[in-house]
Amino acid sequence: MRDSDEGWDLKLTLYQYKTCPFCSKVRTFLDYHGLPYQVVEVNPVIRQELKWSTYRKVPILMVNGSIQLNDSSVIISTLMTYLISREKSILEILACYPEMKAKNHSGKDVTDFGNKYWVMVDETKHTQFYPEKTSRQEEIKWRKWADDWLVHLISPNVYRTPAEALASFDYIVREGKFGTFEGFFAKYVGAAAMWLISKRLKSSLLCEATI
To answer: Are residues 24 and 128 in the same domain?
Structure first.
């Protein structure tokens, strides 16, 4: 692994919600590897900071101001691949994670990305980073578990009551330094929405746990 003090030739800007668990994943990865980055706090209701993007979710990581990485797992896999091997550019690596559009069971358009849990290691480095036969499979298993299960436990605990939801969004608004109207709207509309979402998530998780 290339140490952070050897230099870093990419300018990274992370568009995030402060309390978004998927954004926290990316920040943790960047901090762990000592990669410098700037943060743009996105208003979670209005999202005007993303008006330039057709992809309206966070996190988004902009590389050198022109290359857009979407989805926390794609961001981590792309950067990890780049850290391991500098033989390919970020754009070449990103091509390994194709965007896939489909409709979910409710008929809503959804976007996913192929191979998003795979770090693209060539044969010469595979043994170094995946010394055991099951190492890669274990990595993919736990990364999927974090996305499919762990992060969904957070909202029901952070937004348990309307008061706790308001307190959380008050923190988000203060951190984001939004304008008066945008902050007020984000705090009260966002808190109400996340409290309702957390209730649905809690019911869903309880149902899965009893099956």
So the answer is: yes
In whole angstroms, what is the distance from residue 169 CA to residue 184 CA? 10
Tell me if residue 22 is catalytic: yes
The residues, ordered by sequence, that sit 6+ positions from 148 with a Cβ below 8 Å of its Cβ are: none
Q: Does 124 share its domain with 187?
A: no
Same domain, yes or no: 188 and 108: no
pLDDT tens digits along 98-135:
999 888 777 788 889 999 999 998 878 888 889 888 99
CB 159 within 8 A of CB 195: yes
- Of the candidates 17, 82, 97, 169, the residue annotated as catalytic is 17
104 and 183 belong to one structural domain: no
The answer to whether residues 109 and 18 belong to one domain is: yes
Task: Respond yes or no: is residue 29 known to be catalytic.
Answer: no
Q: Which of 40, 52, 43 is nearest to 12 (CA)?
A: 40
Question: Whole-angstrom Cα distance, residue 169 to residue 12?
Answer: 26
Domain that holds residue 59: 4-133
Same structural domain, 86 and 26: yes
* Whether residue 198 is found in the same domain as residue 166: yes
207 catalytic residue (yes or no): no
* Given the residues 23, 82, 96, 159, the one annotated as active site: 23
pLDDT tens per residue, range 181-202: 777 777 777 777 777 777 665 5
